[in-house]
């Protein structure tokens, strides 16, 4: 393939990987605190709708983006109530969150289907965008993509150097010891759940505000689940999440391009690609990694004490 | 100062208390749903009433609810079998699709066979296809330690796309004016209706399979081993129970039951294969299984109620223009409130004055 084909494809990979990246980083934050949240898909789609509605009614997409994060956090707070306060099963609660979120978004969004809202458009970054290859691939996007470049290093810094980040990891690794050390495990887990939900909502808003500028039912189309899988692929490391998200963005962009170029392959087979790749990537990451880096207490509730 | 405290119960909550918790959970979720209706300008009381009368208010409604309960029951029974072993099979939707594909393949390939041979062959194909689809996540889990939740879920998307590929392509009816559907099944490939009702004999399949699954857990050695493993995996492994084989078994069984539901949907309900048979029974089945605490009899009751929710949702859509997604909201809410209510089984909440 020539450079003229590859560069636009890579740029498209970064763009369609960005919503998945936001959501994956959100789930990493949640899981590091020891909570498994399978409601990513629900938080994303609720965020996508909120972002769209707020941007449409205020004319300010930035406000929409922020509101999307807040509703994402609000929805995942339900997971917090069920699992942290009421000791509900984390797997089932997450599934319920996805069912609820998808239902809510499709219910409240029916009158917005097919409408458009002001969103984000590409802005060339000065100097950086004139770099060969790197410029067009990484620095010719909308501002939300640039924002997403800053989050993985920030999260890495947060987890490995800050006191709060280390406490959060302790809550996820060994809650009993963390409690004994005087840490408020439930508090850290609340932060993990709602902070994670905030990023998931942002990921959803990227879809409705930058990727399409439109609202349609089932806009997220399984991206939230791919994000859950990518957390495992990334070994719970923010840096590797970037790799995974762009890999998926790439396969989605490639599949769209193949469809547009009118190949002989039927579209249903092409559409299977991202889902098949998810399974493949999971198999690959568990096969390569003998020792799991999963937080020790992931999915285990902390019992209330008298 | 008053303070809320959570205290462990000496004994788990009895059946009366459990029912009370369940009923209040459902009432709470209906309350939330009513609020949502209100915010969208639908009179909430009228909405909830329409939902109920639409689901259970007439003979036609009851029959329709029962009809939709059939696939839901089988999918949920399958999901529950896997959940018993703490294996999270989220793939009933895909296993359902594969079951319908397997049954359709037999129905289209051997239309001239007599009913006594064709229907069992269709069921066999549905079991193999659905069970095989369920076997894959189990195999990857046990051999490569991949997460079965995500694998089984991703396989749902793949299965639905496979179904679409078939009905848009190789199996498409040339006389369907471009609609994505296979030709109609032959008379011998169709599971008939019971008497003058609109309910098909699939209901009898449900009863038999339900009793079989219940008996399997209660009276067989393997069933006992499953229960032991489900209660405590580590202890079971220590007792040298064949955990690996049990995982394969439950996932195959789970997929086979969902596949059977797919067979019934294709054969008895639409008499052909078309994409519209995929309406999310596999996902609702998870709600049903959890509401019923994985007990076959309760699954029967819960699947009838949630099928009613779907039917009632349709009349809510027709009469009051409430979007179909409303049903999903209630489902999610019920699951969340019931899940939260589970706390009261082992704990009680007391107010203490400090």
Shape of chain A: globular
Which spans of chain A of ≥5 residues are poorly predicted at pLDDT below 50?
none
The major beta sheet of chain A can be summarized as:
2 strands, antiparallel
Helix content of chain B: over 70%
Strand order of the largest sheet of chain B: 1-2
Order of helices and strands of chain B: EHHHHHHHHHHHHHHE
Rg of chain A (C-alpha, Å): 19 Å
The order of strands across the largest sheet of chain A is 1-2
Strand content of chain A: under 5%
Structural class of chain B: mainly alpha
Label the structural class of chain A.
mainly alpha
| N→C terminal distance of chain B | 6 Å
Unreliable spans of chain B are none
Question: For the largest interface in this structure, which chains are involved and how many residues does each contribute?
Answer: A-B, 49 and 50 residues
How many helix segments of chain B?
14
What is the averaged pLDDT score of chain A? Answer: 92
What's the count of strands of chain B?
Answer: 2
Helix and strand pattern of chain A: HHHHEHEHHHHHHH
Apparent shape of chain B: globular
């Amino acid at each position: 393939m020539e450079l003229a084909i590859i560069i636009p494809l890579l740029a498209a990979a970064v763009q369609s990987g960005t919503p998945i990246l936001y959501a994956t980083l959100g789930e990493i934050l949640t899981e590091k605190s020891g909570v498994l949240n399978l409601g990513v898909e629900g938080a994303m789609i609720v965020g996508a709708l909120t972002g769209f509605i707020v941007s449409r009614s205020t004319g300010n997409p930035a406000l929409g983006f922020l509101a999307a994060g807040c509703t994402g956090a609000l929805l995942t707070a339900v997971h917090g109530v069920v699992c942290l306060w009421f000791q509900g099963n984390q797997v089932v609660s997450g599934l319920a969150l996805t069912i609820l979120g998808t239902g809510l978004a499709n219910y409240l969004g029916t009158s917005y289907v097919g409408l458009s809202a002001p969103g984000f458009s590409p802005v060339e970054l000065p100097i950086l965008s004139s770099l060969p290859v790197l410029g067009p691939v990484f620095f010719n996007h909308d501002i939300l993509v640039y924002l997403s470049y800053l989050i993985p290093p920030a999260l890495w810094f947060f987890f490995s150097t800050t006191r709060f980040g280390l406490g959060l990891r302790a809550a996820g690794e060994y809650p009993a010891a963390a409690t004994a050390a005087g840490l408020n495990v439930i508090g850290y887990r609340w932060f993990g759940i709602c902070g994670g939900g905030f990023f998931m909502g942002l990921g959803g808003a990227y879809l409705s505000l930058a990727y399409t500028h439109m609202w349609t039912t089932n806009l997220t189309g399984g991206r939230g689940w791919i994000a859950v899988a990518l957390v495992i692929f990334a070994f719970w490391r923010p840096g590797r999440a970037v790799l995974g998200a762009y890999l998926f963005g790439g396969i989605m962009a490639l599949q769209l391009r193949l469809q547009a170029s009118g190949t002989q392959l039927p579209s249903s087979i092409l559409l299977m690609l991202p889902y098949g790749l998810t399974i493949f990537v999971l198999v690959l990451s568990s096969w390569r990694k003998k020792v799991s880096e999963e937080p020790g207490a992931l999915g285990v509730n902390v019992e209330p004490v008298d | 100062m008053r303070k809320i405290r959570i205290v462990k119960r000496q004994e788990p909550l009895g059946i009366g208390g459990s029912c009370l918790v369940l009923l209040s959970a459902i009432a709470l979720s209906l309350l939330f749903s009513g609020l949502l209706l209100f915010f969208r300008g639908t009179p909430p009381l009228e909405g909830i009433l329409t939902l109920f009368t639409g689901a259970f208010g007439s003979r036609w409604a009851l029959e329709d609810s029962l009809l939709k309960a059939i696939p839901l029951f089988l999918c949920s029974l399958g999901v529950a079998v896997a959940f018993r072993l703490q294996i999270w099979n989220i793939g009933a939707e895909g296993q359902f699709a594969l079951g319908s594909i397997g049954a359709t393949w037999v129905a289209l390939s051997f239309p001239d066979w007599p009913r006594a041979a064709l229907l069992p062959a269709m069921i066999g194909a549905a079991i193999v296809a659905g069970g095989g689809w369920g076997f894959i996540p189990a195999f990857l889990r046990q051999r490569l330690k991949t997460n079965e939740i995500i694998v089984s879920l991703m396989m749902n998307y793949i299965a639905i796309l496979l179904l679409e590929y078939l009905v848009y392509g190789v199996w498409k009816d040339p006389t369907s004016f471009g609609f994505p559907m296979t030709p109609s099944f032959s008379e011998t490939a169709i599971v008939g209706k019971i008497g003058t009702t609109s309910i098909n004999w699939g209901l009898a399949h449900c009863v038999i399979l339900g009793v079989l699954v219940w008996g399997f857990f209660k009276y067989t050695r393997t069933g006992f081993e499953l229960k032991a493993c489900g209660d405590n995996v580590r202890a079971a492994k220590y007792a040298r129970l064949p955990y690996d084989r049990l995982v394969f078994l439950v996932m195959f069984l789970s997929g086979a039951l969902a596949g059977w539901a797919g067979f019934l949907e294709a054969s008895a309900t639409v008499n052909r294969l078309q994409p519209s048979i995929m309406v999310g029974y596999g996902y609702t089945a998870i709600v049903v299984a959890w509401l019923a605490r994985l007990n076959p009899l309760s699954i029967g009751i819960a699947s009838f109620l949630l099928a009613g929710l779907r039917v009632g949702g349709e009349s809510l859509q027709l009469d009051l223009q409430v979007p179909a997604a409303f049903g999903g909201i209630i489902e999610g809410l019920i699951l969340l409130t019931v899940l939260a209510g589970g706390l009261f089984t082992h704990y009680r909440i007391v107010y203490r004055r400090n």
